[in-house]
Amino acid sequence: MTEAMQETVPKREDYVLGTDVVVTHVPALRIRLKDLISGGTKCLSLDLSNVQMVDSAGIGLIISTHNSLRKLGGVLELTGVAPELGDLFRSMRMHHHFRISGAE
């Protein structure tokens, strides 16, 4: 098959956040998410099943991750979102920019 005929499948990564997305954890999470994106991830699914709290620094991290992926033609989705966090994200209209689904 020639290069022109090869179909490119975007790299997908499912990443489980094991902690709340708050100011004390954001620097380490930012590094990890940047590494995933610079490593070629175009479709990033963040599992928030273990997350109970997201503060303003965490919101900023989620939005900047979305923006970084979008610039590369990629997408972000949040899964396993607790009802309270889902309400917060919807009140901020984040669901208009990327997919947000609740915990099963």
Structure description:
The chain is of the alpha/beta class. The protein has one domain (10-102): STAS domain (Transcription Regulator spoIIAA, 2-Layer Sandwich). The chain contains three helices and four strands. A four-stranded parallel sheet has the order 1-2-3-4. Helix 1 (26-38) runs parallel beside helix 2 (56-71). The protein is globular, with a radius of gyration of 15 Å.
Give a short summary of the structure:
The protein is an alpha/beta fold and 104 residues long.
- Tell me the domain tally: 1
Q: What gap, in angstroms, lies between the N and C termini? A: 42 Å
**SSE arrangement, N to C:** EHEHEHE
Strand order of the largest sheet: 1-2-3-4
CATH superfamily annotation? STAS domain
Overall pLDDT: 92
H/I helix tally: 3
* Secondary structure category: alpha/beta
Q: What percentage of the residues does DSSP assign to strands (E)?
A: 15-25%
What is the gyration radius calculated from CA atoms? 15 Å
> Which spans of ≥5 residues are poorly predicted at pLDDT below 50?
none
CATH class: Alpha Beta
User: What is the CATH architecture descriptor?
Assistant: 2-Layer Sandwich
Shape: globular
